[in-house]
Amino acid sequence: MTPLAHIAALPVRAYRLLFSPWVGHGCRFQPTCSAYALEALERHGAIKGSWLTIRRIGRCHPLGSDGYDPVPGSDPEHDAKSNRNQT
User: In the prediction, which pLDDT does 86 show?
Assistant: First the structure.
């Protein structure tokens, strides 16, 4: 992870340490948004990882989708299925 990505991951780690135990385990997606954020920052760096995280959190609302939603590039089989469905 780049130094800037480490800094960007600090709020996510703080959330997991301080707030996540109080919020509970009612996440709509697998992996959870905080796990997704840490993986996105590690895999794609601070800028793109932060953008992916913001997009993911934006999809997390009552009218949004749910289910398996991995970080792009972490599951090539899922990425290939997503690309076939978009064309």
Answer: 66
The model's pLDDT over 17-57, given as tens digits with 9 standing for 90+, comes to 999 888 877 788 999 999 999 999 999 999 999 999 999 99
CA–CA separation, 36 and 56 (whole Å): 8
Q: How many Å apart are CA 48 and CA 34, to the nearest integer?
A: 16
Angstrom CA distances, 46 to 31, 53, 73, 77, stand at 19, 10, 16, 25
Residues 6+ away with beta carbon under 8 Å from 37: 9, 12, 49, 53, 56
